[in-house]
Structure formats: structure tokens, C-alpha cells
Amino acid sequence: MPVAGGDGTMRIGLLGRGIGSSLTPIMHEAEGRRLGLAYRYDLIDFDRLGLDDADLGVVLETARELGYRGLNVTYPFKQAIIPLLDSLASEAAAIGAVNTVVLRDGARVGHNTDCWGFAQSVRKGLGTVPIDHVVQIGAGGAGAAVAHALVQLGAKNIDIVDADIGKAEALARNVRDVTGARAQGLAPMRLGEVIGMADGVVNATPVGMEKYPGMPFDPGLLQRRQWVADIIYFPRETELLRQARALGCRVLPGGGMAIYQAVRAFHLFSGIEPDATEMGRTFAAYA
Length: 287
What we know:
Layout: E1 10-16, H1 24-34, E2 39-45, H2 46-49, H3 56-65, E3 70-73, E4 87-88, H4 90-95, E5 100-104, E6 107-111, H5 114-125, E7 133-137, H6 141-153, E8 157-161, H7 165-179, E9 182-186, H8 191-194, E10 200-203, E11 227-230, H9 239-246, E12 250-252, H10 255-270, H11 276-286
Parallel strand pairs: 1-2, 1-3, 4-6, 7-8, 7-10, 8-9, 10-11, 11-12
Antiparallel strand pairs: 3-5, 5-6
Helix pairs in contact: 1-11, 5-6, 5-10, 10-11
């Protein structure tokens, strides 16, 4: 694990698996330099380091002891990390997932910047689109944030599909209880029933990443009137989005969510408001 020294550098890290292609460190460090900060962002890849999931608590405590200012959290730890934290910000508590941990004054506080990040990416990348009824594939930590963002954007009916029907039903129940929107959890075999009725479809699974190639569902189920969003940004355009675009659907890659969640996380770590446009330029230069 990278060492955070006592040289006054602001140390940040990203916890996850298969994160070697992440552009989050580049965005953070470039913005830190632009603002005149001594800012370092480390990848803490459990795959490359040969760590087990059960090592998460040790890694979190080690980061605190080494003086890290904060950590971003990605797949597969956005929910597993919650019991290891001292407290949760209100949005993270409502969503039930954490992607940002601020380490300050000995405390570990969990936040969720994914929700705002996804909502902002839709506003900027799709503009005004029909969003009353959405099908979401994936009910993990990222999926929890996306579902809440969809409600904030105006969705009234969300069908949440996951191979683990228990996870899908639990997230749907959370959305209903917290937001009042209609949500139901479904098994993948029900996709054919619901996709045709939806305004849009979101992939909130890791399927399509470089580490998990493929598509989360048959794009032949789509219609050209629909929009399709993916939270994955490496590769920049997934096979799902490529095929959806070929069908005439409006598509939204995951780059926007990556940028905007980083914008809010940077502010939480540093206390300084970053420039979203500059961070977006950095992302585009390397994507």
C-alpha cells in the first residue's frame, strides 16, 4: 500500500478491484496542481496487491494511520465499507452506499458523490429526456446511487433488475421507503417484459468493463425511441452503448458520472471547490 508521508502532501486513495485504468487519480492530481496544492492520489487495487475482501478494514485503518485525507471507494466495496465507518452523511445513509470516505480528526465519515454525479451527467449529457419509467440493471453500491438519482431527475417508476433478486428487491424497497417512488425488484428473466415499456435503460453493473467484457442484456430488446446510459467509462464507450447507438438510441457513457462524482469528492477532501470544466478537460485528454 502506498505510504503517505509527513511532507504536507494531501494524500488520497482509491479502494477497489481492477482499477488500473481509472482516470480519477489523473483528474484529482491535475486539479490539485492547478490550484497550487501538494496533492497525491494513489490507486489501492486489491487485485494487484493480492488482498482479500476481508482485508478492507485493515486497509482502511492503515490509510488513516498513514495520514490519508480521504479515500474513494469503488467496486466491490461501496456497501461492504459501511460497517467500518464511524458515521455517514445523510445522503449516503439514505442510499445505503458509500463511494467517498473523509478521514479527519480520527473519524471515518462516509459520503456518496455518485448520486449527484450521475444526476448531473444526465442533465449535462442527455438534457431533457422522458424519464418517467426507467429500467435499471444492477442493484449494487453504484446501482443504489443511480436509483436515487433517477428519482431526483423525475423518475416515478423504476424496475430494478439484478441476478441476485434479493438485492434487487432490497434496493427497490429502499427507494420506495426513502423517496416514495414506485420501484420493484425483478430477476433478469423479466427484462423482456419491462424494457419495451421504459423510457430509458441504465446499466449499473460492471459488465462491459475491461475486466468484465460483454453486455448486461440483449440490446435487441431496445427501441430507437429510448435512451441508454452506462456508468462504465473504461472503455469509454461500452459494447452496449455502441449497439444502442447503432439502433438509433440516445446514449450516455459513464464519463460524465466519473467527472462529476470526482468534482464533489475533491471538495469533500480538500475543502476547496474545484473547476468541473477543468476536470472534464483532463478526463477527455486521457479517456
